[in-house]
């Protein structure tokens, strides 16, 4: 068996996937309708909308299959997202990449597989619309075109979800998307007893920057700040833009003691970025940090309120020079 490789843009791909705020959500008719239609049109026992996460593939819709996820190491879809073309395996038992795969040698007994990548956001393949059969077969050109058409419909549904949860300018979560992701992450932290903390960041004197350099440059500065945040932080951390110049970061597995080092890394990286871009200005930001306490913070709204209060009380400011 050959485990799938990671795409070259894996970090951006995972970021795009997480921003959809779709993983581990309930079934939805708009996706289930597509997989039911795919089963009928192609006469296959299984059709899936599969999303490839860090260590697993998770099925937003699984028509004909009872499980809702499998390991990424044994996934066919992990191979399919490496290309923009349909991956078709006529007979998995005769393919050296899959012949001893447990999904072939055991349930569901895959022989035929065809997966069309689902592309959203900046061009990342986040998963597939795929067909599975227990007997060998091939798709002709007309059938491959039909599969692409169905995949395009799935992409449109994913893009609609993306627009509802992502800030268009900075490409991080908007308030709605951040709150949904953070609620889910804090629920897991509470259940597992792991630490989490929140950084509340407000760009200082941002109105003055707009007046001095114009709103186009102001938008560029906001996008720069969000990009450096993503660069400095880990994939597991959650970044959001709450309003004009206010950003928040939920640090998972981190206590308040980790905050100063993270803030200093951010300040240095932001200065390097501004200098490399020959900006005519520096950026300063004020920070408030609160450690998550399940007893004091029954929801994300309360955690945000406490972090904003900590920022206003302390007004600790870090300046990044161009």
Care to describe what's here?
This protein is of the alpha+beta class and about 325 residues long. The protein has 2 domains: about 10-165, Beta-Lactamase (2-Layer Sandwich), CATH 3.30.450.40; about 175-320, Reverse transcriptase/Diguanylate cyclase domain (Alpha-Beta Plaits), CATH 3.30.70. About 40% of the residues lie in helices and about 25% in strands. It has 10 helices and 11 strands. It has helices at about 10-20, 30-40, 75-80, 100-105, 140-165, 175-190, 205-215, 215-230, 260-275, 300-315; strands at about 45-50, 55-65, 70, 85-90, 110-120, 125-135, 195-205, 240-245, 245-250, 285-290, 315-320. The strands form 2 sheets. It has a 6-stranded antiparallel sheet with strand order 3-2-1-6-5-4. The protein is elongated and about 65 Å long. The chain starts with 9 loop residues before the first helix and ends with a strand. The model has no long low-confidence stretch (mean pLDDT about 90).
Beta-strand residue percentage: 15-25%
Helix content: 40-55%
Could you tell me the CATH topology label of the largest domain.
Beta-Lactamase
Largest sheet: 6 strands, antiparallel
Distance between the termini: 51 Å
Number of strands: 11
Q: What is the CATH class name of the largest domain?
A: Alpha Beta
Please state the average pLDDT score.
90
Oligomer: single chain
- The strand line-up of the biggest sheet is 3-2-1-6-5-4
Order of helices and strands: HHEEEHEHEEHHEHHEEHEHE
Tell me, what's the shape? Answer: elongated
- CATH homologous superfamily label of the largest domain: GAF domain
Instruction: Identify low-pLDDT runs.
Output: none
With helices defined by DSSP (H or I, 4 residues minimum), what is the helix count? 10
Gyration radius from CA atoms, angstroms = 22 Å
Number of domains: 2
Structural class: alpha+beta
CATH architecture of the largest domain: 2-Layer Sandwich
């Amino acid at each position: 068996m050959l485990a799938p490789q990671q795409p070259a843009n894996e970090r951006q791909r995972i970021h795009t996937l997480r921003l959809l705020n779709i993983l581990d959500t309930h079934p939805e008719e708009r996706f289930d309708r597509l997989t039911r239609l795919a089963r009928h049109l192609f006469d296959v026992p299984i059709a899936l909308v599969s999303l490839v996460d860090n260590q697993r593939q998770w099925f937003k819709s699984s028509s004909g299959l009872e499980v809702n996820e499998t390991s990424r190491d044994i996934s066919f879809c992990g191979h399919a997202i490496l290309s923009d073309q349909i991956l078709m395996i006529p007979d998995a038992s005769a393919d050296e990449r899959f012949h001893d795969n447990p999904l072939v040698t055991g349930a569901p007994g895959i022989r035929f597989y065809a997966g069309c990548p689902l592309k959203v956001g900046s061009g990342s393949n986040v998963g597939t619309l795929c067909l599975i059969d227990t007997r060998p077969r091939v798709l002709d050109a007309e059938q491959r075109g039909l599969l692409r058409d169905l995949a395009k419909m799935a992409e449109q549904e994913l893009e609609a979800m993306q627009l509802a949860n992502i800030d268009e300018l900075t490409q991080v979560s908007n308030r709605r998307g951040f709150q949904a992701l953070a609620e889910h992450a804090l629920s897991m932290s509470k259940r597992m007893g792991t630490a989490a903390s929140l950084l509340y960041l407000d760009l200082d004197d941002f109105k003055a920057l707009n007046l001095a350099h114009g709103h186009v440059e102001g938008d560029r500065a906001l996008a720069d700040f969000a990009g450096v945040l993503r660069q400095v932080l880990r994939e597991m951390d959650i970044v959001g833009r709450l309003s004009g110049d206010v950003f928040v970061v939920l640090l998972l597995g981190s206590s308040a003691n980790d905050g100063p080092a993270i803030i200093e890394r951010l300040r240095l990286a932001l200065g390097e970025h501004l200098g490399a871009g020959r900006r005519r200005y520096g950026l300063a930001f004020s920070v408030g940090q609160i450690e998550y306490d399940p007893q004091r913070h029954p929801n994300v709204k309360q955690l945000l309120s406490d972090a904003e209060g900590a920022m206003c009380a302390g007004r600790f400011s870090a300046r990044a020079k161009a």
